[in-house]
């Protein structure tokens, strides 16, 4: 969904002034982020999303509609012209660091030591380095060194 006054005044926002809450309202359920993850990994069709995630058809239909309505995905004719496909928009691609950070958190905290899991690698096969927030001066940032400035 494009940025509009209607969106800004949406009465359904969990916490209207918080960007984290608004993001979670838009993509914060597990199925939406798994659809985005799979779109980043090349899934395009309803069938591919369903096969990769195991999601029920009705839930997948709902999530694809929601992600399309909010501008995370766009629906277009597939190259064959016989079907529709879903492709990430710029807003959808902007979720890449979110997906990577969730993945890296999961690698550290959701697996037992030594338990095998998939690995994200760059085009050369090198594991992607950990994403670490830094300040304008290059110093590492954390919850103890930042604060939310309310408007």
Please give the alpha-carbon distance between the first and last residues: 24 Å
Full CATH superfamily name: Winged helix-like DNA-binding domain superfamily/Winged helix DNA-binding domain
Number of folding domains?
1
**CATH architecture classification name:** Orthogonal Bundle
What's the β-strand tally? 2
- What is the gyration radius calculated from CA atoms? 18 Å
Largest beta sheet: what is the strand line-up?
A: 1-2
Q: SS-based structural class?
A: mainly alpha
State the CATH topology: Arc Repressor Mutant, subunit A
Largest sheet: 2 strands, antiparallel
Continuous helix count:
7
Strand content: 5-15%
Helix-strand pattern, N to C?
Answer: HHHHHEEHH
CATH class reads Mainly Alpha
In terms of topology, how is this protein built?
Blueprint: H1 5-8, H2 19-27, H3 30-40, H4 46-53, H5 57-69, E1 73-77, E2 84-88, H6 90-93, H7 96-109
Antiparallel strand pairs: 1-2
